[in-house]
Amino acid sequence: MRAQYLSVNGVSRVWNMILVINTGSSSIKMALLEMPSERVIAEGAAVRLGEEEASLNWNVGGDIQHVALPAAGPDVAMQQMLAILFRRMDKERITAVGHRVVHGGERFIAPTLLDDAVIAAIEELSHLAPLHNPPNLLGIRAAMRHLPAVAHIAVFDTAFHHAMPLHASLYAVPYRWYSEYGVRRYGFHGTSHHYVAQQAADRLGRSFSDCHLLTAHLGNGCSAAAIAGGISVDTTMGMTPLEGLVMGTRSGDVDPGLHDYMARQTGASLSEITAALNRQSGLLGLSGRSNDMRALLAAADEGDVRAGLAVDIFCFRLAKALAGLAVSLGQIDALIFTGGIGEHADVVRAKTVQHLSLLGLVLDAHRNSEHGRLSGGLISAVGAQVPVLVIATSEETMIARYVVDMLQRLDRTAE
Ligand SMILES: Nc1ncnc2c1ncn2[C@@H]1O[C@H](COP(=O)(O)OP(=O)(O)O)[C@@H](O)[C@H]1O
Ligand SMILES: CC(=O)OP(=O)(O)O
Ligand SMILES: [Mg+2]
C-alpha cells in the first residue's frame, strides 16, 4: 500500500490499525487488525449476552482474559471489552473503526463514513432488522465515545448483494410496494459470503470473477448465496434476515398466510407473531430444547427425536435452497460451507450434501470428518464433479479490508 498516513479531521495518523466491531443480538465480536498484513493483534468475543452464562474472552497480544458477565446485556459487555482492550493497548494507535451493520436498505450499498445523519438512517432501518441494527448502533455509539477522533466506517451486510438482478430481488407483490415502500429482497451476511467466495477462488486457483460459487453461511443466522462474476446474484435472505433457511431461533420461509391464520387462532398481534418467528422458531422451536446446533446433535445422538427432526429439517431445507440457487448460477464450480455450523458440524454437511447428489455433489466421509483440515479445506470425494470446501469465515478481516479501501479513497480525495 502506498500511503502510510491518512488525514482524518485534519489529523494525520498512521492508518494501519483497524478495530472491527461486530455487535450481534447475543454476542459481540471485536478484532484489532494490522493492515495490510491482516495480522490479528487482538481478538475478543462476548457471548450468550442476556443469559446467566454470559462471558467475555479477550486475547490482546497473547494476554488472555476471561471474564464472567452474568446476565450482562450488549451495553455492559461493550464497555467491558473496550475497557480491557484500552488497558492493554494505547488507543492512539487505532486509526479507524469498522462496524458491521446488518441492514443498509437501498441507500447504503458501499462502506460509509458514520456521522449523525448516517446513524439516524441506520436507526430508521431498525424495524427491518430488529435483532441486529439496534445492537449495531449500540456498538457504534460506544466506540465513538471512546474513540472520538478516528474515522468510524459502517460496513453493511446488505451491500454485497445490492447488484442482484431484479428477477432475484423483487417479490411478486404489487410493484408499488417496492417503488414506494422498498419492499424487496436485500440479502445479508454479505461480508462473509464475499470473504469465503474469494478464498475459495484462490484455493481453486481460479480468478474470482470467473467463478460460479454456492456459499452456505451457517451460524446463528443462516443464509446461502449464489456468486457469479464476483457478485452475489441470488441469496436466501430477503427484505429482513428472517427469510430463507431454518436458523437458530428464526423460522426462515413460511407460508405468507401464516400471520393471518395464527392471529385469528391465538389473538396474537402481527408483531407478536413476527417476534415468535424471529425468536422462538427455527432449531429452538422445532426441538423445544436449544437453538445451538452442537447441543442438538448431542441430544439427537442420545435419542431425542425432536432434536433429530430439527437437524433433519435444517439440512433438507438448506439442500433445497442450494439446489434453487444453482438455477441462478447455471454451473457450480464449488460449494462452500462456513459459519459455526458450516465449519464444525460434519453431520450437517453430510446430511445436506446427501440430498444434492443430482447436482454432482458427493462428500468424502473421512475428509468431511476432518473438516477438510488435511486436504486444504476440500471435503468432496476424489473425482467428484463439484468441489465442496470448508472455509473459516472472517467477517472481521473482510470488514478491515473494506475499511482500508475506503480510507485509501478518502486519502486520495483529500490530496
Ligand atoms: N463443533 C461444533 N459442532 C456443531 N455445531 C457447532 C460447533 N461449533 C459451533 N457450532 C454451532 O455454530 C452455531 C454458532 O455459529 P457462529 O457462526 O459462531 O454464530 P454467530 O452467528 O453468532 O457468529 C451454533 O449453532 C453452534 O452450536
Ligand atoms: C444477518 C444475520 O442473520 O446475522 P447473524 O447471523 O449475525 O445473526
Ligand atoms: Mg454471525
From TrEMBL:
GO terms for molecular function: acetate kinase activity; ATP binding; magnesium ion binding. It catalyses: acetate + ATP = acetyl phosphate + ADP. Pathway: Metabolic intermediate biosynthesis; acetyl-CoA biosynthesis; acetyl-CoA from acetate: step 1/2. SUPFAM superfamilies: Actin-like ATPase domain (SSF53067). The active site is at residue 157. InterPro entries: Ac/propionate_kinase (IPR004372), Aliphatic_acid_kin_short-chain (IPR000890), Aliphatic_acid_kinase_CS (IPR023865), ATPase_NBD (IPR043129). Its cofactor is Mg(2+); Mn(2+). Mg(2+) binds at residues 22, 395. Its EC number is 2.7.2.1. One of its GO terms (cellular component) is cytosol. Substrate binds at residue 100. Pfam families: Acetate_kinase (PF00871). It comes from the Bacteria. ATP binds at residues 29, 217-221, 292-294, 340-344. The record marks 189, 250 as: Transition state stabilizer. It is found in: Cytoplasm. Its main location: cytoplasm. Homodimer. Catalyzes the formation of acetyl phosphate from acetate and ATP. Can also catalyze the reverse reaction. Belongs to the acetokinase family. This is Acetate kinase.
